[in-house]
Design goal:
Layout lengths: L9 H6 L4 H11 L5 H10 L2 H4 L4 H4 L9 E3 L6 E6 L2 E9 L1 H6 L1 H17 L4 E11 L7 H19 L3 E8 L8 E11 L14 E6 L9 H4 L20 H15 L4 E6 L4 H13 L2 E5 L12 H6 L5 E6 L4 H10 L3 E9 L3 E6 L2 E7 H4 L28 H9 L8 H4 L10 E3 L6 E4 L6 E7 L2 H6 L1 H18 L3 E10 L6 H20 L4 E7 L3 E3 L5 E3 L3 E10 L16 E6 L10 H5 L13 H16 L6 E3 L4 H13 L3 E3 L8 H6 L6 E5 L2 H10 L3 E8 L3 E4 L2 E4 H16 L1
Parallel strand pairs: 4-5, 9-12, 17-18, 24-27
Antiparallel strand pairs: 1-2, 2-3, 3-6, 4-6, 7-10, 7-11, 8-10, 9-11, 12-13, 14-15, 15-16, 16-21, 17-21, 19-20, 22-25, 22-26, 23-25, 24-26, 27-28
C-alpha cells in the first residue's frame, strides 16, 4: 500500500482536528499507522459535523416516531405521511462557518446542500426556508454579511426554481464573530417511491453523477467543527462554490431515473463529500465499498485521492445501481449534460478500499468510521436559574414604546429580505412571507403544507430547558395559526464549544426541553443537524460563544388550503379576542426589557405544554369552522406588537382595552407570556360559547376599524407605525 507521501506527525494529526487519543484509537482500529488519505478520511468522519460525537448520546432521547412518521432520523431527510399516497420529506441543516467566511457562496451552497438531501429521497422540492442570526447591526461586518447571505440564498433558490417562502432573522452581539445560516427544504414524494441510502448487492456498480470534483471545500466538515480564530478569513478555500443551474439539471435527472427501478441506493455528496457518501452508504447497508480513484471525474489537474475524497464540490451524487442498468442510467445523465462515471463496486468486505494508479491507497474497516466513531460523555453543568425580575416601572407611553419596538432589529419588517427571494415560483405558494407560517399547496390537490422555523435564543441562554420547549411550542403555534395540523419537526442545534461544561449544559438542557415539547405536541423530530464550536477566539485568548440557538423547523398539513387563516385584519367591526391564558405580564427576557429598559435579565416565560396543545386544537377547529377571520400567535414583543402586525397586514386599525387591570399596562401589552393567540371574529357569541365548552380561556379586547392603534386610550397612527416598521433594513443596507 502506498503511503501517499505521508509522514504523519503530531502537527499533521492536530491540523486534521484529531486529538492524540483519537489518533491512538485510529492506529488500534487499523492495526498500523494510517497514511495521509486514511487520516483525512478519519478526520472528516470523526468531525463533530459528521459524527455528532458530543451530542449523539443525548439526541437518542428525542421522540422520533409516530403514526405519521415513515422515516425518522438517520437518512438524508425525514419523511411523514400526508395522505393519498403522498409524503412530505424535509430537513434543516447549518452552513454557519462557510457563510461567515464567504457569505454569498456559504449561504448559496447551504441551500444547494439541503435541496440535495431532500431530492435524494425521491421528493420534488417545493419550498425553502431559512433561519438567520447576525451580530449587532452596528458591527462593521454585519451589513456586508446580511447582504451576502441574503443574495446567496436568493441567487441559488431563485435560479434552481424552488420558492423561498419563510424564515426568521435576528441580531445580537453574540453572533458578531459567528453568524448562523440554517437552511430548510420541504419536498413532496409518492410514498411508494421513496429512496434510501443503504448500499447492497456485492458486485453492484457504484456510480458518480453530477458535476466534476474540484479542490473547493476540502476540509469543510473539519473547519465547521472548530472555533474561529483570527485567521478565519484565510479559510476561504474551504468554502464550496455552488452552481444552481447544475443543481436544477441534477434534480431533474435524478427524479427521471427514479421513475425507473434502476436505483438500489442513493446519497448526496454533502459535508465530507465522497468520503461521507461512500461511508454512509456502505455502513448503513453493512457491506464494503471499493472505489477506483482514477475514474472520479475531476475538473482540476493532478488531483490526489486525498483531495478527491475530501473535496466538497457541489452538485454531486453517489448511487448504487442494479446489475445491467448502467447504460440506462448513463443515458439519462448524459441527456441532462451531467457527468456519469462508474467509479467502483459494492463488496462484502465491510471495508472501504481505494485504488489509484494501480495501487491501494486506503483500506479502512467501516465500523470505526461510522457506527463505532467516538461518542463522548462530555462533562456538563446545568444553567443556573435566573434571578427573579423585580417589578419594572413603565418607561414612556405605551404608544412610544410600540413605535420603538416595531422598528427594532428583531421586530422590523423583513420585506427587504423576502422581496429578494422568488417566493411564488411553481405557482403553489398560497401564503407569502410575512405571516405566521408559510403555506404551499400540494400540487394538483387541495392540500396545503404549512411550515415555519422558530427559536428564541435569549430564552435558551437564560433557561435552555424552557427555551427548548418554547422553540417547539412557537413553531406549533405558527403552523396552527394558519389552520394546519403540525405533523413533525426537524432541528438545527447551534451551540458553542461542547468541551466547555457550561456550553454542554446548554446543549443537554435544550435537547431535554425540545424532547418534552415534541412529545406533548405530537411533533416528533424526524431529521436534523448539530452545529457546534460556534465560537470566536478573542485576542486575549477568551472565546465569544453564540447564544444557544436550537432552531426548530416544523411542517403541518391542512386538508383544504382555502380554509386557512392569515394574520391580516380584513373587516372593520370585527371583535378581537385573546385565546389561551390571561397572561401575567411576563417581562423577563422580553424584547421590551431589552429595547426599552436596556436590560437582558430575568427568568423566561414558562411554557405549559398541556395548555399549548388544548389551545392549539381549539384554534385550529375554529379556523376550519370559519368561526374566526384573522389569527396570530403572540410571541416577541407581546400582545401590542401582535395586534400591530395584524393591523399593518390588513391596513386596518384596532381599538382595545386591557381585560386585566391588575397588571401594569406596559407589562400587559408587552409581556411575552406563552400559549396565546389573537383572533378577529364576526361571530363572537358562538366563538365564546365554543371556548367555554372546550374549557379554553377567552377574553374580549376590542374591535377593528379606523386607521390607528388605540391601546387603553393611547393612540398612534398606522402610518407612523408602518414608517418605523419598514425603516430598519433599508437604513442598515443603504
Amino acid at each position: 500500500m502506498t503511503d501517499q507521501n505521508s509522514s504523519i506527525t503530531a502537527e499533521t494529526v492536530a491540523s486534521h482536528g484529531l486529538s492524540p487519543e483519537e489518533y491512538d484509537t485510529i492506529k488500534k482500529a487499523l492495526g498500523r499507522t494510517p497514511n495521509l488519505v486514511e487520516l483525512g478520511i478519519f478526520s472528516a468522519m470523526w468531525s463533530e459535523h459528521c459524527s455528532y460525537k458530543s451530542s449523539r448520546r443525548h439526541l437518542k432521547g428525542l421522540p422520533t416516531t409516530g403514526p405519521q412518521v415513515i422515516c425518522g432520523p438517520g437518512e438524508n431527510a425525514g419523511v411523514v405521511d400526508i395522505g393519498d399516497g403522498q409524503a412530505a420529506i424535509f430537513k434543516m441543516e447549518s452552513h454557519n462557518h462557510p457563510s461567515y467566511i464567504e457569505p454569498y457562496q456559504g449561504a448559496a451552497t447551504g441551500v444547494g446542500g439541503i435541496l440535495r438531501d431532500v431530492f435524494t429521497m425521491g421528493a420534488r422540492p417545493v419550498a425553502n426556508l431559512n433561519a438567520l442570526r447576525f451580530g449587532s447591526p452596528d458591527h462593521a461586518k454585519t451589513a456586508h454579511l446580511v447582504s451576502g447571505v441574503v443574495a446567496g440564498i436568493g441567487g441559488y433558490g431563485n435560479c434552481v426554481g424552488v420558492p423561498t417562502v419563510g424564515g426568521e432573522v435576528n441580531f445580537h452581539p453574540a453572533y458578531d464573530g459567528n453568524i448562523l445560516v440554517n437552511a430548510m427544504t420541504v419536498g413532496v414524494a409518492e410514498t411508494n417511491k421513496i429512496f434510501y441510502s443503504a448500499a447492497s448487492g456485492a458486485g453492484n456498480s457504484i456510480v458518480y453523477v453530477g458535476s466534476k470534483t474540484g479542490r473547493d471545500g476540502i476540509h469543510g466538515a473539519t473547519m465547521a467543527s472548530a472555533e474561529f480564530a483570527k485567521d478565519a478569513e484565510e479559510k476561504r478555500p474551504t468554502v464550496q462554490v455552488g452552481d444552481p443551474f447544475s443543481e436544477k439539471l441534477l434534480i431533474e435527472a435524478c427524479l427521471e431515473l427514479m421513475e425507473s427501478d434502476a436505483i438500489v441506493a442513493i446519497q448526496d455528496m454533502g459535508a465530507a463529500g465522497l468520503t461521507s457518501s461512500a461511508v454512509e452508504m456502505a455502513s448503513k447497508g453493512e457491506v464494503g465499498i471499493e472505489l477506483n480513484m482514477d475514474a472520479v471525474p475531476c475538473r482540476e489537474e493532478a488531483m490526489t485521492p486525498y483531495e478527491m475524497m475530501l473535496s466538497e464540490s457541489q452538485e454531486r451524487m453517489l448511487m448504487v445501481l442494479k446489475p445491467g442498468r448502467e447504460a440506462e442510467a448513463e443515458a439519462v445523465f448524459k441527456k441532462w449534460e451531467l457527468d456519469f462515471a462508474i467509479i467502483g463496486r459494492v463488496t462484502d468486505t465491510k471495508h472501504m478500499v481505494l485504488t489509484w494508479k494501480g495501487e491501494t491507497v486506503c483500506d479502512i474497516p467501516l465500523a470505526p468510521l461510522a457506527d463505532n466513531a467516538p461518542s463522548y460523555d462530555r462533562p456538563w453543568i446545568p444553567t443556573a436559574a435566573a434571578k427573579p425580575l423585580a417589578p419594572v416601572a413603565a418607561i414612556g407611553s405605551l404608544t412610544e414604546n410600540l413605535v420603538t419596538l416595531v422598528g427594532s432589529p428583531d421586530l422590523a419588517s423583513r420585506r427587504w429580505i423576502w422581496e429578494q427571494y422568488d417566493h411564488m415560483v411553481g405557482a403553489d405558494t398560497v401564503q407569502r412571507p410575512g405571516g405566521d407560517a408559510a403555506l404551499v399547496r400540494v400540487h394538483g390537490t387541495k392540500k396545503g403544507l404549512a411550515m415555519s422555523t422558530d427559536v428564541t435564543p435569549r430564552y435558551c441562554l437564560a433557561d435552555p430547558v424552557e427555551g427548548g420547549k418554547q422553540a417547539v411550542a412557537e413553531c406549533y403555534r405558527n403552523i396552527t395559526a394558519v389552520g394546519a395540523l403540525p405533523l413533525a419537526s426537524t432541528d438545527c442545534l447551534n451551540f458553542g464549544n461542547p468541551e466547555r461544561p457550561e456550553i454542554m449544559g446548554q446543549i443537554v438542557g435544550a435537547i431535554k426541553g425540545i424532547g418534552e415539547a415534541c412529545l406533548a405536541l405530537n411533533m416528533p423530530i424526524v431529521s436534523g443537524n448539530v452545529s457546534l464550536y460556534n465560537e470566536t477566539r478573542r485576542d486575549d485568548g477568551s472565546s465569544l460563544a453564540i447564544l444557544p440557538t436550537p432552531t426548530i423547523g416544523g411542517v403541518g398539513l391542512i386538508e383544504d388550503w382555502e380554509d386557512s387563516a392569515t394574520i391580516a385584519f380584513n373587516q372593520a367591526g370585527e371583535e378581537i379576542y385573546l385565546i389561551g391564558n390571561s397572561g401575567e405580564g411576563h417581562l423577563g427576557q422580553s424584547l421590551w426589557l431589552r429595547e426599552i429598559a436596556g436590560r437582558e435579565e430575568g427568568p423566561v416565560p414558562p411554557v405549559d405544554l398541556e395548555q399549548e396543545k388544548n389551545t392549539g386544537d381549539f384554534v385550529r377547529t375554529m379556523i376550519q369552522g370559519k368561526m374566526v377571520g384573522a389569527v396570530h400567535d403572540i410571541s416577541d414583543g407581546g400582545l401590542a406588537v401582535a395586534l400591530t402586525e395584524m393591523a399593518l397586514a390588513g391596513n386596518l386599525g384596532v381599538t382595545v382595552e386591557a381585560h386585566n387591570k391588575d397588571i401594569p399596562l406596559h407589562a400587559y401589552y408587552f409581556g411575552e407570556d406563552q400559549g396565546r393567540y389573537l383572533v378577529a371574529t364576526s361571530n363572537a357569541v358562538a366563538l365564546v360559547s365554543a371556548a367555554e365548552k372546550a374549557n379554553v380561556s377567552i377574553f374580549r379586547l376590542g374591535v377593528t376599524g379606523g386607521s390607528d392603534i388605540v391601546l387603553d386610550g393611547q393612540t398612534v397612527s398606522l402610518d407612523r407605525l408602518r414608517t418605523a416598521h419598514e425603516a430598519f433594513f433599508p437604513e442598515l443596507m443603504k
